[in-house]
Each structure stands twice: as structure tokens, then as C-alpha cells.
Amino acid sequence: xxxxxxxxxxxxxxxxxxxxxxxxxGTKKTATAVVASSPAKDSCAVGHLIAFVELxxxxxxxxxxxxxxxxxxxxxxxxxxxxxxxxxxxxxEKNTFLKKGNAITQQExxxxxxxxxxxxxxxxxxxQAQAQSMAASRNKTMEDIQGRLKSFLNDYNSDxxxxxxxxxxxxxxxxxxxDSAHNITADVIKGLTKEFxxxxx
Length: 201
Fold this sequence. Notes:
- It is a single chain.
- The chain contains six helices and two strands.
- It is mainly alpha-helical.
- The protein folds into two domains: 2-39; 50-200, no CATH class.
- The protein has a two-stranded parallel sheet.
- The radius of gyration is 40 Å and the shape is rod-shaped.
- The termini are far apart.
């Protein structure tokens, strides 16, 4: 009986050992197979390249953009001079009227004041209308430039080498660290200059 019990214990021990072996060797193979079949995708290992364009340099070096900026500045200066002259003319009219001194009647003073006020209102209305027209023209110009910039960058990045292309510059510099190796401003200046030259011809 003791001998039977000893044999049974040996067989059970062997069975447990065999099961233990199967369990852990099978898990290892399965885990290896899972790792092999679905490797972990590390976003850093994929290598998302990011480039940037310095808009200040772009605006300073692309002749078409410089020309458009100059035109807008000239229009703004001309508008300022025009209305400064209009206000000066009103001031002169007022001074001429006041030179009459005591000869001015109350009715004449009231009529002159009403006329002066109407002229001021007309100048203000004209000034506002022209300022809105200039703003619309400026927005149209900027939209055209931005559209051409995006179109150029789509062609430039047609090989998808860059995942993102950022714009930096005054008021836009949210990138704290920039690697000059990924500064594509010179390429963009060169490419946009050609694009705008084609448009001019």
C-alpha cells in the first residue's frame, strides 16, 4: 500500500511538472508570437518631421509681397493726408467766420454751427467708408498671398516628408525651440518669388 502511494505521488509530481512545462513554454511562445505579429508603434520612432517658415523674412524678401505692402501703406498715408486737409479746411472756415466778431448774429452762428457739424459728419462718414474699403482690399491681398503660400507648400511637401509646417514671426512665435535644419524659409522665398513672377507675366 505504501509502495502504491509512493508511485502515485511520483506520477502526480511528473504530471504537474509536465503541465508546468507546457503552461510556461506555451505562454512564452504565444507572447513572442504576439510581439512579432504586432510590434509596438512608437510615435517618436516613426519620426514626425516638423518644418517652419519665418513670415517676417518672407514678407521682407518676396518682392511681390513687399510691393503690395508698400501700396497699402501709401494708400493709408494718402487717406490720412486727405482727411487731415479736410479737417484743416473746416478749421480755416471756422476761424474766418469768427473774425466777423460782434457782427455775427445768433441766427448766423447757429446756421454756421449746423453747417460745420454736417460737414464734419460727412468727412467722418467718407473716412470710415474708405477705411472699410481699404481693409477689404488688404484682406483680399493677404488671402491671395496666404492661398499662394499654402498652394506652394502643398507642392513643396508633396512627398510628405514633413508632418507639420508651422509659421513663425512677430505675434506668432509659439514654438519655443526651433532647429534651423528644418527652417524652410529660404526655399519658400525662392519658390514664391517664382510663383508671383509667373503671375505678373
